[in-house]
Amino acid sequence: MIRILSRDVALAVRAGGGFGLSLAFFLIVVVLVPFGVGPETAVLAPIAPGILWLGALLACLLSLDRVFALDREDGALDLLATAPVPLEGVALAKAGAHWLTTGLPLSLAAPFLAVLLGLPAPGHLWLAVSLLVGTPALSLIGTFGAALTVGLKRGGLLLSLLVLPLYVPTLIFGADVARRGAEGLALGPPLALLGAVTAGCVALLPFATAAALRVSLR
Amino acid sequence: MSGLVASDLAVARGGVPLLAGVSFDVAPGRALILTGRNGIGKTTLLRTLAGLQPPLAGRVAPGGERSAYGAHADGMKATLSVAENLGFWATLHGAGDIAPALAAFDLDDLRGRAAQHLSAGQRRRLGLARMLLTGRDIWLLDEPTVSLDRASVARFADAVRAHLGRGGIAVLATHVELGIEAEALDLERYRVTGATAGQGGGDIFAEGAVE
């Protein structure tokens, strides 16, 4: 399983793997917002947590259709299914690799981009924390969606439609943690709920993903 | 160790039944060569034997846990080198050293080269070398000799013979004479002759192609 994860990370980082793509997309989205709503801090600061979370969420979505599609194209998915690794393990490793190459860099970059949107200083830390806790759920849900659409040609759009509604709880609680952090309010409950969503995803979704993969292999 | 037994197997592809009543028993150390025209269901049968899809009817013993499946889509990543690709599958299957597999398919000189820079034949050899690393005793191979030159076909035949010598089993879908002592199974007699529209068109084409 570790081996699958490290291979996927290696593939993503090498040429054509699309490692920097999500990060660049996130950067561009965040830079574009002040052009759209005006550069005043008074306008930007209140919406910054939401914008940053939305940007991270969309950036996560960008690389999802590669999670299983490439492995299916070159036959690796068949071979993984016949290898002595449970498909649930494959699903978890794939989600982990997706998080390491997308969620983690996004979480680390977000505090710097928050400066661009004038987010007050205490919010930077909590923004990073909320993303670190929340983005694993995005990767796991996305991997499940990718498994559902792996058999389809050009399944990317359908994947987005399937996955985005499932992202709602993570988005609500994640942005709430970041906003309360910026305003210096108590943020225990939303952070706990955000963690709960992620923990639930870790526990359940690998099984759902494996089941979807088994169907699509037929 | 027991052999590979299929009893009264029926397989379908995309919901269309292709073969029915397929029964065979391959003993350890023996090979079975599947023949039959294009589209008759050789790949589907192999995938069913590998446990990648459930049979429509009948049963296969053992399931997929003892078999290694090798198809034209070989699962090798273009940006990884030959050694990295093989190393990945080797660790996944718990095999230690990739050197014997490299040697068996004459890949030693290519071990540092990225798979995307291999020729079709070299790439095929890379895919076949993976079979040696799976440590599984039932090899299911779909058109294994496509794009191999004569020397490589001989190497492949040697590898299969060595595998059979170790008590392994091989099921091959191929039309190339490999010089391996094997039973042949013509799938034509198991073909499902349904009144499906798609199959009617396929028949006309196939007759033209055969004659």
Automatic annotation (TrEMBL), chain A:
Q: Where the protein is mainly located, per its record?
A: membrane
Q: Which residues cross the membrane?
A: 12-37, 43-64, 99-119, 125-150, 157-178, 190-213
Keywords per UniProt: Cell inner membrane, Cell membrane, Cytochrome c-type biogenesis, Membrane, Transmembrane, Transmembrane helix, Transport
Show the GO MF annotations.
Answer: heme transmembrane transporter activity
Q: How does it sit in the membrane?
A: Multi-pass membrane protein
Q: Where in the cell is it found?
A: Cell inner membrane
Task: Quote a single Gene Ontology cellular component term.
Answer: plasma membrane
Task: Name one process (GO BP) from the record.
Answer: cytochrome complex assembly
The domain of life for this entry's organism is Bacteria
Please describe what this protein does: Required for the export of heme to the periplasm for the biogenesis of c-type cytochromes.
Similarity annotation: Belongs to the CcmB/CycW/HelB family.
Quote the protein name from its UniProt record. Answer: Heme exporter protein B
Species assigned in the record: Palleronia pelagia
TrEMBL record, chain B:
A GO BP term, please? cytochrome complex assembly
User: Does the UniProt entry include the keyword Nucleotide-binding?
Assistant: yes
InterPro entries linked to this entry: AAA+_ATPase, ABC_transporter-like_ATP-bd, ABC_transporter-like_CS, ABC_transptr_haem_export_CcmA, P-loop_NTPase
The keyword Transport is annotated on this UniProt entry: yes
Q: Where would I find the ABC transporter domain in this sequence?
A: 4-210
UniProt-listed Pfam families: ABC_tran
| Superkingdom assignment | Bacteria
| Molecular functions (GO terms) | ATP binding; ATP hydrolysis activity; transmembrane transporter activity
Looking up PROSITE patterns in the UniProt record yields: ABC_TRANSPORTER_1 (PS00211), ABC_TRANSPORTER_2 (PS50893)
| Gene3D superfamilies in the record | P-loop containing nucleotide triphosphate hydrolases
Q: Which UniProt keywords apply?
A: ATP-binding, Cytochrome c-type biogenesis, Membrane, Nucleotide-binding, Translocase, Transport
PANTHER family from the entry?
Answer: ABC TRANSPORTER I FAMILY MEMBER 1 (PTHR43499)
**Protein's recorded name:** Heme exporter protein A
Q: Which organism is it from?
A: Palleronia pelagia
